[in-house]
Amino acid sequence: xxxxxxxxxxxxxxxxxxxxNQIIMACMGYTNEKRAYIEKTPEPFRVISKNHTTGVFxxxxxxxxxxxxxxxxxxxxxxxxxxxxKQTMKDKIKISVLTDYQEEALELHYQLGAxxxxxxxxxxDFYFVPYSLWRLCKEQWDRQYFxxxxxxxxxxxxxxxxxxxxxxxxxxVEFMKEFVxxxx
Length: 184
Fold this sequence. Notes:
184 residues; alpha+beta
């Protein structure tokens, strides 16, 4: 039986929610370790109606073209961190998954010296890609996507949580120069 668009949309939304929760779990672990404090940027929400007696309300999520990057915070040592979370069950991720506004926001945070990246679920493998690499793909390469092979250096540990600050090769985001613009 073929799935209709509504069913596909529900499955994609559920998968996105699971992925974001796996990132949030890592954020909680980093906070407990006093390594970072990173929060999910709230989705825009508007109350439509409210029953003042019962406290029950009807609300609607507002889909803005200008959605902010998904996560922001501070890592140990005082550096800001800002990143977007994207996923696909395909064998490559297109750089066009970022909206123009998300790219502009990441670029501004990058130019100001923040750790910036894109946390990716690429067909159930997890990566934290420096925004500096993402922008090079768009500006200098002949293609507009990344494959698992392209990103293998940026594969992160997964233990039920997407440990985006910890790469499987042993590197840690806070010690990698490609995540921040050269200061000075």
